[in-house]
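Self-study notes.
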Amino acid sequence: MKYSIFSLFLLTIGGAEGFTTTTTPSFRIARPVTTLAPLPSSISSCQRKISLKDAASSSSSLCMSSEAAAEGDAEKEVGGGTATIPNEIFNLVKGIVGAGVLSLPAGIAAYGNAPSAVIPATILIALIGVISGYGFSLIGRVCSYTGATSYRDAWDKSVGPNSSWIPAASCTFKTSCAILAYSMILADTFQALLTTVGFSTITRSQSLFGVTGLFLLPLCLLKNLSSLAPFSLLGIIGMLYTAVAMAMRYLGKAYHVPTGGKFLADVPANLQPSFGTTGATGVLQPSSFILISMLSTAYMAHFNAPKFYTELKNNTLERYN
C-alpha cells in the first residue's frame, strides 16, 4: 500500500510532456509517454504573420513616439526672451553702424592717397569683421553653456572670479569714451540744426543736455532691447540716406578737385581732397595702424552679447548664430 501511494505521488509531480519510469523495490510502474501533435501548417503560418505584424506595429509606434517627442522638443521654446531675430538684427546693426563709419575714410587716407589704397582697406575691414563676429558668437556660446547673463558673469564662470573685474573695467572705459565721442557729435549736430530753424541762442552744452535728458536717458533706462528696434531701424535708415547722399555727390562730381565741383569752394582748404601716388603699398607703413585701431572698435558690440542672447526668443545657439 505504501508503495502505491508513493507511486501516485511520483505521478503527480511528473512533467506534462512525458512520464518517466519510476523503480520501486518490488515492481516497476511504466507511465506512457504522450507528445503533443504539431500544429497544422496553416495555423503556424498565421501565428508567424500575426507575430510579425505585431512587431512591425510596435516598431512603428515606437518610431512615431520618438518623432513626436523630437518634434515636441523642437517646438518647445528655450529661455524667456521676447526679442525676435529682426529686432536683434536691427539693434545689432545700429550698435555697430554708427557715426564712426564716417571716419573710416580718414583712416584710409592716413596711409594712402591713391585710389588703390581702398583694396587693402577693404580686406582689413572684412577680416576684422569676421574676427569680431566670431567673438560675438563665442560670448553667446559661453552664456549658453554657463548660464551667464552678463559679460562679467560669463568671464566669472569661464575664467575665474578673481579677474572678472578686467572685462567690467574695460567695458566701462570703452563705453565712456564712446559716450564722450557721440556727445561731441550730438552737440555739434543739434546746435547746427537748431540754429538753422531759428534757435541761434541755444549753446552747444544746452543742446547736448536737452537731447540727453529728453531722449537718451529714457532709452538707456529700458530693460528690454526689443523696444529699441523702431529707433534702431530709424538710425539704419539715416545711415543709408547718408550713404546714398554721398554716392550722389560722388557721381555728380560735386567735390571734384581738378574741375572744381560746385560745392568744393564751400570746403575749407585744409579739408579739401588731395591725391598722390601712395596706394595699396601704403598699408605696409606704420600709419596703417590708425585704420586698424578704428576697425578694432568699429564692430564693437560684444559687451551687449549676453543681453542679445538672453533676450532672444527661443534662444538656442542655432538661432543666436
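Second protein, same conventions, sequence then structure:
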Amino acid sequence: ILPSSIVVFTSRRSSMQENELNEIKSAIDQTHSTTTPQTQRKQLYDYLDQQLRDDAKCKQMGFYFIALQEDRYRLFGYHCIRKIAKKWGSMCKPDKDELKQLSMALFEFKYFDKHDAAQYNNALLKQKISELIVMLMCAAWPGEWPDLLTQLLAIAGQNPISLEMLFIVLKDLYFQCGDSGPMTEKRKKRIKDELMKQGAQILQIFEATLMRCYQQIFMQHNTSNQVPMNILRRCLESMPRYLNQFPLKGILESQILIGLAKILQSVAQTSSNSNVPSCYDDY
C-alpha cells in the first residue's frame, strides 16, 4: 500500500496506468528469477531500459518504486531517479524541487520498514543511493541546494541505514574533490570550503558514531551485530580524509581521538574475530 501523498502525486502528474506499472514490476521480478532463460532476461533488460528513456515516466516510476518494500523494486526506482538527476543543469526549478524530494526519500529510507532495520544489509542499494547523493552534491551544493548537507546530517542522526550511507557519501564526495575528480578546480574548491565551514557538525557525527559503536560492539562484546559494525566500518573509511583537513584544535577538543583509541585497543584484543573491520589498519 502506497502512502497517500505518492498516490496523489502519481495520479496527478503522469498518464501511466496501474497495469503499466504492474507490467514493469513483473519484468523486474523475472530479471531476478533464477529460472528466467538468458535470452528472455536480455529482452526484459531491453524493455526496462526503454521505460527509462521517457523522462515523464521516470518521474512517476521513481516515486512509485522507491515506495515499495522489496529491494529489487527500490533499486529500479533508484535508476529512475538517477536518470532524472543527470539532467540537473537543464531542469526547471519545480522539477529540481521534485528531484530533491525523491532523493531525500531514498536517503531517508522513508518507506522502509523500521521493524526490519536490524536485518537490513543490502550493500548494493546503499552504495547506489549514496552515489546519487554525491552526484547531486557535485551538481547543486551549496549553490542551488545550500542546506543539503544539513539535511543529510539530520536524517543520519535518526536512521542507522542513513548514517551508514552518510559516511559513504562523505568518503566519495572527498574523492570527487581530489586530483582525479571530474569537476573543475573552482567547483572542487567551493565544495571543500563548504565542508570546512560545516566541519564542526561533521566532527560531531564522527565523534558520536565512534562512541556509540564502541558501546554497542565492544562494551557489549557483540561483534556479530551487523548494523553497528557496518556503520563503524564506513565511519573509519571516511574519517581519515577529513581529519587530515580539519583544524587540529577542533579535533583535539572533541572526543574523537579518545573514541578511536578505545576502538583500536578493543580491535587489537579481538583481532582474531573475522567480523572486526579491517579498515582500522589505516590508523
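Instructor comment on the second fold: The CA atoms of residues 45 and 272 lie 44 Å apart.
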